[in-house]
Amino acid sequence: MKLSDLSVEHKSDFLKDKKICLCVCGGIASVEVVKLIRELRRQGAHVFVQMTPQATKFITPLSLEWASTHEVLTEITSGVPHTFEADLYMVAPATAHSINKFALGLCDNLVLTTLATAWGRGSKIVIIPTMYEDLYENPALQKNLKNLREEKNIFILSEEPQENKIKFPDIDKIVAYVCHLLNKNEKNVLITGGPTRAYLDKVRYLENISSGELGVTMADTFYKQGFNVTLVYGPGKFSPPQYVRTIHVTTAQQMKRILLEVSKTQYFDAALFSAAVLDFEPQETLNQKKSSQADWVIHLKPTEKLMDHIPCAFKVGFKLEYDISEVDLLQKASMWSKEKKVNVVVANDLKLIKGEKHPAWILYGDHIYKASSKQEISQILSSIILSL
Q1: C-alpha span between 267 and 189 (Å, rounded)
Q2: Which among 17, 60, 292, 357 has most CB atoms closer than 10 A?
Q3: DSSP code at position 162
Q4: DSSP string covering 25-70, please?
Q5: Which residues partner with 349 through β-bridges?
Q6: Of the residues 158, 182, 206, which one is the last residue of a structural domain?
Q7: Could you read off the pLDDT of 301-334 as tens digits, one per residue?
């Protein structure tokens, strides 16, 4: 069906029916707000926009009305718009002028009055500063930002300086942060992803076939669902999002060491072992390059099963087969789950995985869930772990 000019393509329900009050201040970064509004709506949010008088000099209310499909407010009226209740208030971009006034409790325009009301109500407020680096480092501003960070309902999202400026963050990063904040659940999850390598000599190695996309998708989904995510990631083709805590590894031994280390320092409610860890590795690794002028006989030995060594009360294992019937796949997955004592098994047939299609059977207790994509696998698993 063809979308109207005001419509957006639905991507997810991470922000389904959430009300977001977007407060726009005067700054050139305000031109990015149209894209931000549209992306928040794609995740299911309803966005309501307020602007400071200075903001209207950089972008028109009409543009933001088109992006949000709601009337944009610029001044206090008899309708008392500052008492509007939202799930989250976002100041983007936030100028030094507005941040300093807000921190002092001043209310000389609609945006500041709205924020003061939200602060008094205890609502979540996200502030995204954008300005020149010298202005950002102003002692008075830094003092006010420090005081604001100490408030339990106020969150500062800022970037490292680029070109001597604190720039507007990437839209996807902002949206992911909002999803995480509004779905916060305090559960910790550990995810492994990507392939691992075993070196034969200084220039050659063995590696499983794995793009790492499933692990990255799960990490992204769990983060947006409000989980605290740690991703231990092998050399996959897909880059994990910058907002997910990621520890990069190469070999199975490195992955095991990191998994043991993080398990000792942090409790995890669940661990998902989606990494394609090599089942075999060479008995010895040469410390130089092997000459290509002669035959080379390589002896392989079985590797350790990493999830056997990681302490966690709830484990999700991944059983991959090739060119197998559904009945046999489910039978093997069921037997494997009992053998390995995992709580959930995600069973796949590699032959069926092509592009966006990633069919899987998810076994959990007496339930069998069918998924057709990496996103569906991630959503089902996050729902299961959220219900623990």
Answers
A1: 9
A2: 60
A3: B
A4: -SSGGGGGHHHHHHHHHHTT-EEEEEE-TTGGGTS-HHHHHHHHSS
A5: 321
A6: 182
A7: 998 888 888 989 999 999 999 999 999 999 999 9
Residue 280 carries which side chain, given as an amino acid letter?
Answer: F
- End residue of a domain, out of 182, 209, 243: 182
Residue 7 lies in a domain: no
**Alpha-carbon span 28 to 164, nearest angstrom:** 15
Domain that holds residue 102: 19-182
| pLDDT digit string, tens, across residues 193-245 | 999 999 999 999 999 888 999 999 999 999 999 999 999 999 999 999 999 99
State whether 62 and 154 are in the same domain: yes
Residue 151 belongs to domain with CATH number: 3.40.50.1950
* Structure token digits, residue 176: 């992911």
The tally of domains found in the chain comes to: 2
Could you tell me the pTM of the whole model?
0.94
Short-list 158, 85, 152, 170, CA closest to 128: 158
Angle in degrees, 0-180, between the axes of helices 96-103 and 110-121, rounded to the nearest 10: 40
Q: pLDDT of 106-159, one tens digit each? A: 999 999 999 999 999 999 999 999 999 999 999 999 999 999 999 999 999 998
Specify if 118 maps to a domain.
yes
Helices (H), 71-205: 96-103, 110-121, 133-136, 139-149, 171-182
- With tokens 């669902």, the residue in question is 225
- Least Cα distance to 237 among 258, 211, 200 occurs for 211
Is residue 171, in this structure, part of any structural domain at all?
yes
- Type of residue at 5: D
